[in-house]
TrEMBL record, chain A:
Keywords recorded for this protein, A-Z: Cell membrane, Membrane, Transmembrane, Transmembrane helix, Transport
Membrane topology: Multi-pass membrane protein
Organism classification: Bacteria, Bacillati, Bacillota, Bacilli, Lactobacillales
Keyword Glycoprotein: no
Protein name: Energy-coupling factor transporter transmembrane protein EcfT
Organism field: Periweissella fabaria
Protein localization: Cell membrane
Transport keyword on record: yes
Physiological role: Transmembrane (T) component of an energy-coupling factor (ECF) ABC-transporter complex. Unlike classic ABC transporters this ECF transporter provides the energy necessary to transport a number of different substrates.
UniProtKB/TrEMBL annotation, chain B:
GO molecular function per UniProt: ATP binding; hydrolase activity
Protein name: Energy-coupling factor transporter ATP-binding protein EcfA2
Domain of life: Bacteria
Species classification: Bacteria, Bacillati, Bacillota, Bacilli, Lactobacillales
Organism annotation: Periweissella fabaria
Enzyme class: translocase
Domain ABC transporter: 3-246
Family note: Belongs to the ABC transporter superfamily. Energy-coupling factor EcfA family.
Automatic annotation (TrEMBL), chain C:
Originating organism: Periweissella fabaria
Protein name (database record): Energy-coupling factor transporter ATP-binding protein EcfA1
Keyword line: ATP-binding, Cell membrane, Membrane, Nucleotide-binding, Translocase, Transport
Family recorded in the similarity comment: Belongs to the ABC transporter superfamily.
Pfam families, per database record: ABC_tran
Length: 266, 289, 280
C-alpha cells in the first residue's frame, strides 16, 4: 500500500500546491483532452515542455513521479507493443506471421507512449499537490449547477469528505485485524490461491462489522450536533480564486492556441 | 517458556527518509511461568515489543530466543509460525477480531489453522471456553449477539485454544466496567497459577501491575529504562513521577500517612498490604500504652 | 430552583431485546448542576443519554429539557440545547481537520463564516488544542480527539453537556486532560452550564454535585458523592468502584479494625487513622 503514489498527497508550498483546487482540477482534465489534439512531433514537444514545467514547479522529487509510473508500467508496455507490431499501414521494416513493424507503427508507438506519460504525470501533479479533501471541495463547487435538477450535491460531497477522512482509520483497522488473525495462525503470504482467498473472510467480516458500528456512531454524533442535511448549512472551508489561478488558466490557453497552431503549421 | 531479547532493535521503514527507531538495543529475559507487566507511555515502544514477542515482525538487529527457536532478521516465516503457536496474544479490544457464525467455531479457528483436526479443535475450543467461564448456553450463538464483556471472553478463548505457553495481554480490561475488570484480572491470575502460563501484561493501570505482576519492564522512547520487581518500581514515587507514570494509589496514600507521622514499611504497594501494615501499627500503638 | 431536565417515568426497550433497558425512570436536574450517572455496563446509562436528545424515542413517559418537551417537533431545538461527547473518540470526529470538526456544529446551525472564524479558534483555545487546528485526526491521541469534540460543543454554547463515558477509552493521561478541560469550562460558565457525566470513573463521579446510580434500567440510589460513597459494599455489589479511601476502609474492616460508617475522603481518613493511632 505504501508504494502507491497515485492518489497520495505530498505537503508543500510550491506555486502548484497553492493553486485553487478548482483551477487544478479543470486544468488537469482539460489538459488530458488537449493531449489528443496533438498530431505531430512539435505538438508533443510543446505538451512535453508544459508537463515538465508543471512537474518542476511542484518542487517534488522526480523519483516520486517515477515511482508513480510503476503500477501502470505493464499497461504502457502492452499498448506500445500492440501499436508497434500491429500497425497495418506504412513502410514495412520487419514482418513475421501476424506481426509487422512499420514506420507508422513506430511513430504511433512513440506517440501512445508519450500520451500515457503526460496523462499520468499530469494527474500525479494534481494528486501530489492537492489534498483529497480540497479536491472534494472543488468537485462540490463544480457540481453546483446540478442542484437545479435536485441532485444532492452537498450530501454527496460530505459523504466523499467523510469517506476520505476514514480511509486512514480503516487502514489502521485492517492492519490490526490482520495481525490478530495472523496470531491465530492465518498465513496470508503462502498457500494456494483458494487458501489465500479464504483467508480474506476473517479480515473482511470484522472490518465490515467495525465499519457499520462506526457508521452508526457517526450518524448519532452528526445528528446530536445538529446535522439536518445539506440545506441551510454554511461553510467553514471556502475556496478562494486568486490572481495566480487566473494566470495559470492564461498560460494553459496559450499552450492550447499554440497547439492548435501546430496542426495547421505542419 | 523463557523468552530472551538480546540487543534487539527495531526500525520502521529502514533505509527510507521515514526510518524511525522504534526500539533501541533491548536486553531482557522473561522467565518461565513469570507474570511480567510491561508499562510505559503510548508510543514508548510497547506495541512493537508485543509484535516481536509473537513473531509478527522480525527484529532489525539482534536476536530473540524462544527456548529452542532463535528469531533474528533472517528467520523464515515457518519458524515464526511456530513461535506464534507457543505465544498467544490478546490484542486491545480483541472482540473486534471475531467473525465466525458461532462462538464455538470462532474459538476453533486458531487450532484449525495450526493443523489440528476438527475433532481436536472442537475439544480445545470447549476447554478454552470453560477456562474463560463462558456458559455453555452461549456456545452455539453468534458471537455478535453477546454482550461486550462476553465477546471479549470469546476472543480470549480463541487465543487460549491454541494452548500457548506464553499469553500476552494488551490492555485486556480497556472499556470494561469495574466488575468486568476485576473478574478479568482474577481470571488471568488463575490461569497463571493453575495452567503455568507465562503472562506478559501491557497496562496503563499501575494498580493492576502492582497487584498481579512479579516482574516489571518499564519502556520510554524505545528503550528499557527499568527492569525490576513491582516493589522496586512502584515504591519509588520520585522516579515514577520523573517518568511521568502514574503512582499506585496505595503508594500515594501511604505517603500521606507517613507525612502525618505513621512509621510504615517501604514495601507497600497495594491496598491489602497497607491495611495489614496499618493494623499492625495500630496494635503496636496499643502496646505502648 | 429551576429544573433544566425533567425525566418522568420513561421506559425504553430495544427492538432486539427481551428486557427493558430503562424501566419507569424518573429524576430531575436543576440548572447549573453537575450530575454523575453511574452504573455497570448494560445498566441503561447510555440509552438514557440518547433519549435525552431524541436519538432514541422513549416507549413511555416524557422528558422536558429547559421547559421543552422532547419530541419530533422539538428535536432540533432540544439538540441545540444539549451537547454530547460520546465514548469512541474516532467515531465522532466528522471533520477532515481539527478546525473543520469544531466548525461542523456551527455549519449545521447556519452561522455565518465570519463568526465561525472567531468561534472556532476560541473554542480550541479553551481546550488547549489551538496549535493543532490544521491537524488531521489520524495524528491525534484519543484524549486530544475528545478535547476537540468538547471544543465542537463549546463553539455552539449549549446549556447542557452530556458526557457519555467520554473518558472510558482513554489512557490515564488523556483522561486527566479531558476531565481538566471540562472542569475549567464548568468553572468559567458556572450556573449557565449543566453537566451530566455518565461514567465508571469514580474520581470523575466524585467531582459531581450529585450522583445517580442506575441498575437494570432503574434508579437505585441518588445523593451527594459523600452519601453514595458511604455505602461502599453496596456499590461493589452493583458492580461499581469505590474511591480509594473507601477501598482501604473495607480492607481494614476485613482485618477486624473498627471503621466509621460515614464516608471519609482521603484527608479525613488520614486524620481518623492518626487519632486512632494516638488513642491506642
Amino acid at each position: 500500500m505504501s508504494n502507491m503514489i497515485i492518489g497520495r498527497y505530498v505537503p508543500g508550498n510550491s506555486i502548484i500546491h497553492r493553486l485553487d483546487p478548482r483551477a487544478k482540477l479543470i486544468l488537469s482534465v482539460s489538459f488530458i483532452i488537449l493531449i489528443f489534439l496533438a498530431n505531430n512531433w512539435l505538438g508533443y514537444l510543446i505538451l512535453g515542455l508544459f508537463t515538465l514545467l508543471a512537474v518542476a514547479s511542484t518542487k517534488i522529487s522526480l523519483a516520486i513521479y517515477l515511482k508513480g509510473l510503476k503500477p501502470v508500467l505493464w499497461l504502457i508496455v502492452f499498448t506500445i507493443v500492440l501499436q508497434l507490431f500491429f500497425s497495418p499501414s506504412g513502410h514495412v521494416y520487419w514482418a513475421f506471421g501476424p506481426f509487422t513493424v512499420t514506420n507508422t507503427g513506430i511513430i504511433n508507438a512513440v506517440y501512445v507512449f508519450l500520451r500515457f506519460l503526460f496523462i499520468i504525470l499530469m494527474s500525479t501533479v494534481l494528486t501530489l499537490t492537492t489534498q483529497p479533501l480540497a479536491l472534494a471541495d472543488a468537485l462540490e463547487y463544480l457540481m453546483k449547477p446540478l442542484l437545479k435538477i435536485k441532485f444532492p450535491v452537498y450530501e454527496l460531497s460530505l459523504m466523499l469528505a467523510i469517506a476520505l477522512r476514514f480511509v486512514p482509520t480503516l487502514m489502521d483497522e485492517t492492519v490490526k485485524v490482520m495481525n490478530a488473525q495472523r496470531a491465530r495462525g492465518v498465513d496470508f503470504a503462502n498457500g494456494s490461491i483458494v487458501k489465500r482467498s479464504k483467508a480474506i473472510v476473517p479480515i473482511l467480516i470484522p472490518l465490515f462489522v467495525g465499519a457499520i458500528q462506526r457508521a452508526i456512531d457517526l450518524g448519532d454524533a452528526m445528528e446530536a450536533r445538529g446535522y439536518q442535511g445539506g440545506e441551510n448549512r454554511t461553510k467553514f472551508r471556502v475556496l478562494a480564486w486568486q490572481r495566480r489561478d487566473s494566470l495559470a488558466v492564461l498560460v494553459f490557453m496559450c499552450v492550447l492556441v499554440i497547439l492548435v497552431g501546430t496542426r495547421f503549421l505542419m | 517458556m523463557a523468552i530472551e531479547f538480546k540487543n534487539v532493535s527495531y526500525v520502521y521503514q529502514p533505509g527510507t527518509p521515514f526510518a524511525n527507531n522504534a526500539l533501541t538495543d533491548l536486553n531482557f529475559k522473561i522467565q518461565p511461568n513469570s507474570y511480567t507487566a510491561l508499562i510505559g507511555h503510548t508510543g514508548s515502544g510497547k506495541s512493537t515489543i508485543l509484535q516481536l514477542l509473537d513473531g509478527l515482525i522480525k527484529p532489525t538487529t539482534g536476536q530473540i530466543i524462544f527456548d529452542d527457536h532463535v528469531v533474528d532478521n533472517k528467520t523464515s516465516q515457518k519458524i515464526l509460525a511456530k513461535v506464534r503457536q507457543h505465544v498467544g496474544i490478546v490484542f486491545q479490544f480483541p472482540e473486534s477480531q471475531l467473525f465466525e457464525q458461532t462462538v464455538l467455531k470462532d474459538v476453533m479457528f486458531g487450532p484449525l489453522n495450526f493443523g489440528k483436526n476438527p475433532q481436536e479443535a472442537q475439544e480445545l475450543a470447549q476447554k478454552a471456553l470453560r477456562l474463560v467461564n463462558l456458559p455453555e448456553e452461549h456456545w452455539q450463538k453468534s458471537p455478535f449477539d453477546l454482550s461486550g464483556g462476553q465477546m471479549r471472553r470469546v476472543a480470549i478463548a480463541g487465543v487460549l485454544a491454541i494452548e500457548p505457553q506464553v499469553l500476552i495481554l494488551d490492555e485486556p480490561t480497556a472499556g470494561l466496567d469495574p466488575v468486568g475488570r476485576k473478574e478479568m484480572m482474577a481470571m488471568f491470575a488463575e490461569l497463571h497459577a493453575t495452567k503455568n502460563l507465562t503472562i506478559i501484561l501491557v497496562t496503563h493501570q499501575m494498580e493492576d501491575a502492582a497487584e498481579y505482576a512479579d516482574d516489571v519492564l518499564v519502556m520510554a522512547n524505545g528503550q528499557l529504562v527499568k527492569h525490576a520487581t513491582p516493589m522496586e518500581v512502584f515504591a519509588d514515587i520520585t522516579w515514577l513521577q520523573a517518568q511521568q507514570l502514574d503512582v499506585p494509589h496505595t503508594v500515594l496514600f501511604k505517603n500521606k500517612l507517613s507525612a502525618q507521622g505513621f512509621d510504615l514499611s517501604a514495601n507497600i504497594i497495594n491496598v491489602e498490604q497497607l491495611a495489614l501494615a496499618l493494623q499492625r501499627s495500630l496494635k503496636k500503638g496499643g502496646n505502648h500504652e | 430552583m429551576e429544573n433544566i431536565i425533567e425525566v418522568k417515568n420513561i421506559s425504553y426497550q430495544y427492538p432486539s431485546s427481551t428486557s427493558k433497558a430503562l424501566d419507569n425512570l424518573s429524576f430531575s436536574v436543576t440548572k447549573g448542576e453537575w450530575v454523575a450517572i453511574i452504573g455497570h455496563n448494560g445498566s441503561g446509562k447510555s440509552t438514557l443519554a440518547k433519549l435525552l436528545n431524541y436519538l432514541l424515542v422513549a416507549d413511555a413517559g416524557e422528558i422536558l429539557i429547559d421547559g421543552q418537551l422532547v419530541n419530533e417537533a422539538n428535536m432540533w431545538t432540544v439538540r441545540n440545547k444539549v451537547g454530547m461527547v460520546f465514548q469512541n473518540p474516532e467515531n465522532q470526529f466528522v471533520g477532515a481537520t481539527v478546525a473543520d470538526d469544531v466548525a461542523f456544529g456551527l455549519e449545521n446551525r447556519g452561522i455565518e463564516r465570519e463568526r465561525m472564524l472567531a468561534l472556532v479558534p476560541a473554542a480550541l483555545k479553551e481546550v488547549q488544542m489551538d496549535v493543532f487546528a490544521d491537524r488531521e485526526p489520524t495524528h491525534l491521541s484519543g484524549g486530544q480527539k475528545q478535547r476537540v469534540a468538547l471544543a465542537g460543543i463549546i463553539a455552539v454554547a449549549p446549556k447542557i453537556i452530556i458526557l457519555d463515558e467520554a473518558t472510558a477509552m482513554l489512557d490515564p493521561k488523556g483522561r486527566k486532560e479531558v476531565i481538566a478541560a471540562i472542569r475549567k469550562l464548568k468553572d468559567r460558565l458556572g450556573k449557565e452550564l449543566t453537566v451530566i457525566s455518565i461514567t465508571h470513573d469514580i474520581d470523575e463521579a466524585a467531582d459531581a454535585d450529585r450522583i445517580l446510580v442506575i441498575n437494570d434500567g432503574q434508579l437505585v440510589e441518588e445523593g451527594t458523592p459523600a452519601t453514595i460513597f458511604s455505602s461502599g459494599q453496596r456499590l461493589l455489589a452493583l458492580g461499581l468502584d469505590v474511591p480509594y479511601a473507601e477501598q482501604l476502609k473495607l480492607a481494614l474492616k476485613n482485618l477486624d479494625v473498627d471503621v466509621p460508617e460515614e464516608y471519609l475522603d482521603e484527608e479525613r481518613l488520614v486524620q481518623w487513622l492518626w487519632q486512632l493511632n494516638l488513642k491506642m
